[in-house]
Amino acid sequence: MYEYKFIKIELSKWNSKPKEEYQDIIHQYANQGWRFVQIFAPATQGYGSAAYFELIFERPLS
Known about the structure:
By secondary structure, the chain is of the alpha+beta class. Helix content is 16%, strand content 39%. The termini are close together.
């Protein structure tokens, strides 16, 4: 069994760049025992671009 964590990273509406450094977040959670699984862009805004990313992490249940 695993537990999962979903971290939402908002994107700037002006240039579509992440408002936070996702690489730093991945390192932070990896140090806490989480395994990075996927980056996902579920929502779209104007012109079909993503409104945010979601980082998905998992780790075995203790």
